[in-house]
Amino acid sequence: MSNKKVTSKEVKHIAKLSKLEIEDDKIDYYANEMNNILEYFNVISKVDTSNVEPLTHITDNVNVIREDEPHDCIDKKKFIDNCPDTFGNYIKVPSILDKEIDE
Questions:
Q1: What are phi and psi of 32, to 5 degrees?
Q2: Which end of the chain is less enclosed by CB atoms within 10 A, N or C?
Q3: Mean pLDDT of the chain
């Protein structure tokens, strides 16, 4: 692995890509934290894993798979009657598309 250090400029760029607002006085702190993380990767990359088999999962759990069989569905009238606001066989929900978005 490389011994390259994360710069303040790179932290600002990563923050911009991540849509994070980081105060200028915290940039050096995060650069240092990222460098500590990368240094740890340098440490663990030196561990000999030549005799370790690759894993896809850390446990021996197996998914339980069953046949996809149709079952009786909930009664439409009971479902509609249980909804707080309806119009015939339709469910009314609050409008969200006309609201202004704060940016």
A1: -65, -45
A2: C
A3: 88
